[in-house]
Amino acid sequence: MAGFVDVLLRGLALCGQAVAVGGVVFGLWLLLPALAARPALGALLRRSLATTATGAVVVAVAQALSLGVHIAALAGDAGWPVREIAATTYFHAAVARIVACALLLAGCAVVGRRGPGARWGWLVQAVAVVALGACAAWTSHAAARVGPRALLLTLDALHQLAAGVWIGGLAQLVVLAWGRAAAPWPARLLKRFSATALAAVGVLVAAGVGLALAYVDGAHALFGTSYGLMVLSKGAILAGLVVLGALNFFAVRRLPDAADVGPPRLRRFVEVELGLGATVLFVAASLTSLPPAVDVVTDRASFTDVLRRLTPKTPTLTSPRIADMPVDDPTAPRTDADRAWSEFNHNVAGLFVLGMGLLALLHATDRARWARHWPLIFLGLAAMLLVRDDPGDWPLGPRGFWAGMLAPEVLQHRIFVALLVAFAVFEWMVRAGRLTSPRCALVFPVLCALGGGLLLTHSHAGLNLKDEFLNELTHAPLGLLGMLVGWGRWLELRLPDGGERRARWLWSAALATVGVVLLVYRER
């Protein structure tokens, strides 16, 4: 439980840090020149400062809660080891990170009170964000390495700061353009941001490659460990981000310098890019919970193990009896009955999801209006998973409902079930015309993207790192496909000028592909 909560808190801290870092760079590098040319944009500065300050608060709160989680996790019969933890480098870096957030808030307050010409306020903000990146590096794997680590700490800090400039800048664009009363943005400012983002991506990728070379020692480590799998997942999302960013870059380049870009169009440019960026930050946070691949030697999976697990098989449609399962001992070694139980769950779930995907594709043809009711299948899937996900827990096993909620894996499974119910209710009501608000229609894509992101950070409690990795091997592509479903549906709802039809086919096909992957899932 502590590890799962800590990953979520680290992800929140990274998102808040990106908003803070990106906000300062956005204000100094983009807003100040725009204000000098057009003083009427002054209201945007106040909103930008508020967004930056919010990011700093999120970092401080998440970091403080993370410290509390660590202290509570290490508590024993002698009480909480506060003194011992306070003597660690991690504690010092965490406290310094919180202090940097306070410094950033002070700088925002000075600029907000005295106006854009408050140089000391901007200087304080700049110092604070550099300190944020440095302190964050000291809470990463780089700080835990034995031997010289100055290069790794530098690369980690640059990696995080570059991510903040890019993703945090996207957050600024979305927030500043929010609301019907928002003024159009000058095309020249957007061009300046796209050039800044391009430079940030270059630094981000270069630093990331350097860190990967240090933490992943070859193809066997990349394809045979959980850390390598997360690096590949992060790289896949980043590749999608780069493609989307490139499309946005060239679209902005074509705008005349004197043109203005209205907020609705601006939001459509950057909303999906921002959502994928936030997911990358949570994936990066999950990497901190895993040992670097270079340190995992005896528990690496071989290429043969990986290929065997990914080879399609005939679906398992018969389930072992609950009496054959080791439900009385959650720490017992996995048996063939365990694996058969899990395969049955995944394969039957594949039938549900494949059916939904095919109906969604049929509905996309506009020739089968009745197929719009496909979201109701989610209710059957949710009921099946609630009963069978955890055979040692309620309602089949000896452990009660609330006791099972204390187990991280069980808690994550039940969160997924709740998401499925939300999928069913909201999306069916939207498609049946019961909910006509455009905001209600966005619930389904948001939950799909959230579920895909959670699946990427989802971990199993295995007896060793190799078993854990093999169990998660098919979860990464499922998480990526879930994100494609979510953001594809988002684009269907948001894109103008006929672009929504292509997005509809994209996410419907991705949903059907999820069903196929589940249908051929195997653990033996």
Total helical elements: 21
**Estimated helix fraction:** over 70%
- The low-pLDDT segments are none
Q: Tell me what the CATH architecture of the largest domain is.
A: Up-down Bundle
Shape: globular
Mean pLDDT: 87
Strand order of the largest sheet: 1-2
Total domains: 2
CATH top level assignment of the largest domain: Mainly Alpha
What composes the largest sheet?
A: 2 strands, antiparallel
Rg (C-alpha, Å):
24 Å
What is the assembly state of the chains in this entry?
single chain
Measured distance between first and last alpha carbons = 28 Å
Query: Per DSSP, what share of the residues sits in E-state strands of 2 or more residues?
Result: under 5%
Annotation, overall tally of beta strands: 2
Walk me through this protein's architecture.
With 524 residues, this protein is an all-alpha fold. Helix content is 73%, strand content 1%. It has a two-stranded antiparallel ribbon with strand order 1-2. It has two domains: 2-295, Formate dehydrogenase/DMSO reductase fold; 303-519. The mean pLDDT is 87. The protein has 21 helices and two strands. The protein has helices spanning 2-37, 42-73, 82-86, 89-114, 119-137, 141-144, 150-176, 187-215, 219-224, 226-253, 263-287, 303-310, 336-364, 377-388, 401-404, 408-431, 438-441, 443-457, 465-472, 475-494, 499-519; strands spanning 185-186, 260-261.
